Amino acid sequence: MYIPYGRQSIDDEDIQAVIETLRSDFLTTGPKVEEFEQCVADYVGAKYAVAISNGTAALHAACFAAGIGEGDEVITTPITFAASANCALYCGGTPVFADIDPITYNIDPKDIKRKITKRTKAIVAVHYTGQPCDMDAIHAIAKEHNLLVIEDAAHALGADYNGRKIGSMSDMTTFSFHPVKHITTAEGGMIMTNNKELYEKLMLFRTHGITRNSELLSKDEGPWYYEQIDLGYNYRITDVQCALGISQMRKLDAFVAKRREIAKRYDQAFAENPNIVIPYQMEGCNNSYHLYVIQVNNVDRRTVFEGLRAAGIGVNVHYIPVYTFPYYREHGYEQVKCEQAEDFYERIISIPMYPDLSLEEQDYVIEQVNKLTVANNN
Known about the structure:
The protein is an alpha/beta fold and 378 residues long. It has helices spanning 12-22, 31-44, 55-65, 83-90, 109-115, 135-145, 196-206, 239-249, 252-270, 301-310, 326-333, 339-345, 359-375, and strands at residues 3-4, 48-52, 73-76, 94-97, 120-126, 148-152, 160-161, 164-165, 172-176, 189-193, 210-211, 227-228, 276-277, 285-286, 292-296, 313-314, 348-351. The protein folds into 2 domains: 3-249, Aspartate Aminotransferase, domain 2 (3-Layer(aba) Sandwich), CATH 3.40.640; 253-375, Alpha-Beta Complex (Aspartate Aminotransferase, domain 1).
């Protein structure tokens, strides 16, 4: 038996949607792309959506549309996948790391304020594990300092903050549709915005900087005419992927509900274990639980981790603080230190969390986690 930490949930309806698109006239740049964009925009309550090749491309596009360039600083969290910081580097900007709140594990607004300089241009707020950041505080800081807010919501499709879906509130919000996320398009991503100017920049960036929009062309030579008006990338997503995404969106609420049920059972199972800290939930927020991350205290994390792997449980660690990677240390980050993030990293383990996790499998995970955290108590 092997139980992964996360996996996709694909059914016959999803497979049929892909087959029908494969038999259609359009495999890419066709109607399914716009249909998928509208589906997600309607769900989260955003005006515009731009489907893109993956979540990293979504962050890159967002930084481009935000005008990040040489000399600009972008504040983000170190407890995230590297793309949340790399996206600033792609545009010539400089990532600046603010520490995490030790209770929520999300970026700490107080440390964001401490890290702001005259060069700060944007904040990339990562909704770690699917728990929304303190967006009221972050938006207030952004307004005070005239900063753009980009939400990295790769973990947070289906989450809500004070009654609003994540994806509807900031200058831009990015999603990922990797197989372990809430819905999948195999690979894929999306950027949400309510700003038409940003939307137009994102659309250009996705397709080589090329447009046929008559309002943007310098001249009109005929219906065939197009122009490259900026330097963009080929970050398109296919109709095949979007067909899968549309089918998956029909099940999103059920997927999220199942994740919350699994999280509740974990909470109850570990509540009396003195060596485990379970995730805290912010009042007014509904976590969509991309991950379920425990902290282990008074035990050797590596022993527990390897014991779970040996028991057939595919645990992982999310994440190693980004600035500790060799690339970052070699490029000016050797003195950076976020104490809360580093302490958190030393104690965390991600345990299985996905909609198809059975009760029997979850009970086995619970049994093994409790056994190993007690048995290895120092």
